[in-house]
Every structure is written in structure tokens, then in C-alpha cells.
Amino acid sequence: MDWVYNVPIKFYEYDLNELKYKLTDFDGNILLIASKRVINTFDLDVGGFQVLDESITNPDVHLVREILDGIDKPDLIVAIGGGSSIDLGKAISALYEYKDEDVLDLLKNKDYLENGDSIPLVAVPTTAGTGSECTKWATIWDFDNNKKYSIDADYLYPKESWLVPELTVTMDEKMTLATGLDALAHAMESYWSVPSNSYTRVLARDSIRIIREYLPLVLNDLDNLEYRQKMLMGSFFAGLAFSNTRTTACHSISYPLTMMFGINHGFAAAITLFEVLSRNWDYLKEKDLFLDAWDANDLDDIKNWLEEVSSGSLNLANFGVKKEKIPDIVKLATTGGRMDNNPIIFDEEEIYDILNSVYY
Ligand SMILES: [Zn+2]
Q1: What's the predicted TM-score (pTM) here?
Q2: What's the CA-to-centroid distance between 72 and ligand 1, angstroms?
Q3: Other CB atoms within 10 Å distance of the CB of residue 202
Q4: H helix runs in the chain, sequence order
Q5: Measured in angstroms, how far is the CA atom of residue 27 from the centroid of ligand 1?
Q6: In terms of domains, do 238 and 107 share one?
Q7: Are 74 and 120 in contact (CB under 8 A)?
Q8: Using an 8 Å Cβ cutoff, are 221 and 27 in contact?
């Protein structure tokens, strides 16, 4: 067997009215996880379920504890939001059975892997970027100790994912760019990842093609529902690709950038994207098709696109990182299952060089 591809999720594209109908139509106790902003903007608190309306970014162990203590066991979790909301939904789904135990211990000893009674989850992305609606893993942060934990279990694939383009229209320009670049990083990293295969590369190339064309367009026309729908599909294809390959060096290096300097995940992943692409280039499969998806003749065309779409903002100095902090970033930049998923396993010296090259 050369490869296998598996994403056991039912995907639906709905409009906003269908989403509301699905919420009220469910016969049972729903826990709705969504930010107050999303609930109010779309009038989603249609009654009959528990609503968790925190503003959720980078969910950490304390927030998970608070929620486990504060809810009755739901029959279904509906997480509407960016990757953080959906990740939080996955964490509650996995850990509710163990609510009497310490959350940090659970994340470390992975007792939740044995959970035969997880709560089904519906994922509804409001950003076009994270791909969390396609994957069986979630990130929970431990900011007290500068660590992150990945919850990862086969039962954590969402039962269903509902793609509703209207929900993504409220993203401002910065968020649209950050999440679009995150999706692009998922597609590109999946493409050169060690386990990439001919099917994931088709998905990754389609994602790149769509994002390359529509990210610049949507940034100039944020209310355009057609462009938003395209970006949601671009992110979705990237999610389908990296759900079976995972990400690589760029994501590995991004985690300390987010942890230490609060850099938005999408920007943190995209800062090293071109530098890592050029170092990985010799290992890329089907190079001609990759360049074709980019509508590019060579790597310079890709570099120019990235610079243009981000208005030259993808460098560490722009995010307030001091140059003398680079060695501290390097120490935290090797994440198991990410760096070793890159065709070249960059050592500390190479990571230092990469970070230096993207300083200005
Ligand atoms: Zn990402």
C-alpha cells in the first residue's frame, strides 16, 4: 500500500438560515461555544441550549477547567468560531468524562485517549484558515509554563462540519489576511511534508490556486460573499490536505512566536513560509504542478506574491520581536511531529539562520 486517505466527517455547505434551523431542530441538549460577537451579530442565541459566549483566543488549561466545572453534560457540542473555539469544543468533548481530574495531568498522561464516551461535536468555522473543521486534534495552551499540548484522538474528528460563508464576512482586513495565510501555510506545508501523497497534493494545489487568486481580491472587497465562499473552500481544501499529513517546520517555529510575543497564529506560521519553501525546494514533488498552482515561473514570483499580499509585513521586527530574542525562540522552535515532518529536519543553527533571514 502506498498511501491511505481518511477524513470521516460529513461536510455540509449551509446558508445562515439553514444554520439556525439546524440549531433549533436538534432534539437534545446542545452546548453552543461561540464568542459573544458572533452570537450577537448573527442572532444565534435562538434558545433551548447552553451558550458559552467567552471571547476565545488560544484556549488554555484554566479556561478548560472553568468550562468543565460550569456546564451540564451536553448531548452535542456545536463550536462556532475560529480554530480556538473549535479546539475548545474538541477539548471539552475529550475531557468531560474526566472532569474530576486535573486538566494538566490529563493533557500529559493522555488518559482521554481511552474515552469511549466522548461528546459528539459539530464544527462551524467563522474564519477561512485554521482547518480545525477537518482535523482530529486540538491545541490547548499552558501559558504559565510556556508550553502547548496537542489533544489528538481518532474520535475527535467532528461528527459534522457546517461551512457557512456568511459567517466569515465579519472578519476585518487583518484577520482575513492572517487566517488566509494560515490556510496557505497548511496547504504548502502539507505539500512538502514527509507523508504527502498524490491525493493530498491535489488538495493542496487546489487550495493554493484558490487562495492565490482570491485572497488579494477579498482583502480589497471584504463584504464580497462570493470571494468569502472561495476562501472558505481554499481553507477547507488545505484542511483536508493537512488533516492527513500534518504541518511542518513553519508551524513548529510559529509556536514560540505566538507563545512569547502573542503573534497571531497565521502570521506566525507565514513569516517563515518562503524561507522554508526555498530550503525545501529540492525535495518538493511535482514541482511543475506546484508552480502552475501558483501561476508562477519560479520561486521569486511566489516571494513577490507573499510580499504584496502582506504589504511587506511578514518579518519579525514588524511584530516587535527584538533581535537578541532569536536564540530564545530557537530553543522552543522544535516541536515533535512538526519539525520531523519536514523533509529537512532543521537543527538549531539552521532555525537561527531562518529566523535571521526573516528579521527585517
Ligand atoms: Zn495553522
Answers
A1: 0.95
A2: 31
A3: 16
A4: 16-25, 36-42, 61-70, 83-95, 103-109, 173-192, 198-219, 225-243, 249-261, 265-270, 273-280, 287-293, 299-309, 326-332, 348-357
A5: 34
A6: no
A7: no
A8: no
pLDDT tens profile 263-287: 999 999 999 999 999 999 999 999 9
Check pLDDT > 80 for residue 55.
no
CA of 307 to the centre of ligand 1 (A): 19
One domain for residues 217 and 336? yes
Share of the chain above pLDDT 70, in %: 99
Mean pLDDT, the chain, integer: 95
Domain that holds residue 184: 171-357
| Helix, strand, or coil (residue 110) | coil
Q: Is the pLDDT of residue 180 over 80?
A: yes
Residue 297 dihedral angles phi and psi, to the nearest 5°: -90, -35
CA 38 – ligand 1 centroid, Å = 21
Within a domain: 3: no
pLDDT at residue 54, rounded to an integer? 66
For residues 65 and 67, give the distance between their C-alpha atoms in angstroms, rounded to a whole number.
5
Shared-domain flag, residues 223 and 159: no
* Interval between CA 274 and ligand 1 midpoint (Å): 15
Q: Using one digit for the tens of pLDDT, what is the confidence trace for 103-160? A: 999 999 999 999 889 999 999 999 999 999 999 999 999 989 988 899 999 999 999 9
CA of 177 relative to ligand 1 center, distance in Å: 13
Whether residue 328 is predicted with pLDDT greater than 80 in this model: the reply is yes
Residue type, position 216, single letter: P
CA–centroid distance, 268 to ligand 1, in Å, is: 9
* CATH number of the domain encompassing residue 60: 3.40.50.1970
Tell me how far the alpha carbon of residue 266 lies from the centroid of ligand 1, in angstroms.
6
Residues 127 and 218 in one domain: no
